[in-house]
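Translate structure to sequence.
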């Protein structure tokens, strides 16, 4: 009897289950269950992330309502409301839903405030980039997060980066400039969109640093952090909406009383809340490295869907720029994971800091 296929299947099962010895029937059942669960989690992450991007693009591309700050503000309001709802459901169904009980504390809110300022900058610039460049060029327009991770690691934490990782950053930069060049040649380049994309990328990196700094204030709980962060964001957005004249545009909007419009706005907020959950779920059931690979593949699929949906015609060099950005990002993640395996075990605090700055937490659905 040829045992080679069985051996290969057994090795694959061990890789997914993480167990070396197990009864054959039990191992087979566990492998199938884990494989289906991982596939379901990855599919859920892809669905939520891609849908969120297209929903935001739909809301921000509304020519009747040019109010990106208001749209972002409303999504933060929805997130706060969902946090309250999850707390209630957690008390009613403690065995089914696990969500921390949070009572608003002014002192904690002040401690989270520096992160909230970076946070509103990040989501605002992110949405502004999406508004001006569209979904197809969004991956390239927002591709410099990894490069800023390296720069900020050196400037703020005095951490040096290996030549291999710098080479990956060079590939990303090359893809970014090639993409900008090709968009310019096609006559569809928005310098405003590129500018906001660069700012959003920088804020993503800063957000990782400040997240690490304020985590102790919320007992290391990401949902508590999300709760305080979004409450602060709601307050900070109000004066910005007034200063930039968006309140008048919202009041004069013809569909202000349309339930369909508010339904789409609320749905955008729900998906914005859900992306945090499914991102954590994907990392939990796979690994930070697999999460990054999945995110890269998702970005590629998202770009293809946008091009097909808009019936666009793109040049070979345009596609090359996307592949350079995605390939460089994947290679950087792979290089950093190899370096972390070679490095002796560090204090958990230092290890967490390195993970945040190496981009292993991903881009939260973008």
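Result:
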């Amino acid at each position: 009897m040829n045992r080679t296929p069985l051996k290969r299947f057994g090795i694959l099962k061990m890789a997914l289950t993480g167990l070396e010895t197990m009864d054959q029937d039990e191992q087979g059942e566990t492998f199938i269950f884990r494989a289906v669960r991982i596939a379901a989690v990855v599919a859920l992450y892809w669905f939520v992330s891609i849908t969120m991007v297209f929903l935001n693009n739909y809301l921000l591309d509304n020519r009747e309502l040019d109010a990106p700050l208001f749209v972002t503000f409303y999504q933060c309001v929805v997130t706060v409301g969902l946090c309250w709802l999850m707390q209630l459901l957690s008390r009613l169904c403690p065995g089914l839903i696990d969500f921390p009980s949070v009572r608003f504390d002014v002192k904690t809110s002040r401690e989270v405030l520096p992160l909230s300022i970076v946070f509103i900058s990040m989501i605002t610039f992110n949405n502004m980039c999406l508004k001006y460049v569209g979904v197809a060029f969004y991956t390239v327009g927002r591709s410099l997060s990894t490069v800023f991770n390296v720069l900020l690691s050196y400037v703020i934490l005095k951490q040096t980066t290996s030549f291999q990782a710098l080479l990956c950053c060079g590939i990303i930069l090359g893809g970014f400039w090639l993409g900008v060049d090709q968009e310019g040649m096609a006559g569809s380049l928005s310098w405003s969109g590129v500018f906001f994309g660069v700012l959003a990328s920088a804020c993503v990196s800063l957000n990782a640093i400040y997240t690490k700094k304020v985590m102790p204030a919320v007992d290391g709980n990401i949902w508590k952090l999300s709760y305080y962060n979004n409450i602060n964001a709601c307050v900070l957005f109000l004066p910005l909406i007034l200063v930039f004249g968006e309140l008048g545009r919202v009041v004069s909007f013809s569909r202000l009383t349309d339930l369909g419009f508010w339904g789409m706005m609320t749905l955008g907020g729900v998906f914005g809340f859900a992306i945090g959950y499914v991102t954590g779920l994907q990392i939990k059931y796979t690994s930070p490295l697999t999460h990054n690979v999945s995110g890269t593949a998702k970005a590629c699929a998202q770009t293809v869907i946008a091009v097909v949906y808009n019936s666009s015609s793109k040049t070979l060099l345009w596609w090359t720029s996307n592949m350079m950005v995605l390939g460089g990002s994947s290679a950087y993640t792979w290089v950093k994971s190899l370096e972390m395996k070679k490095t002796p075990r560090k204090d958990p605090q230092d290890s967490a800091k390195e993970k945040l700055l190496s981009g292993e937490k991903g881009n939260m659905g973008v």
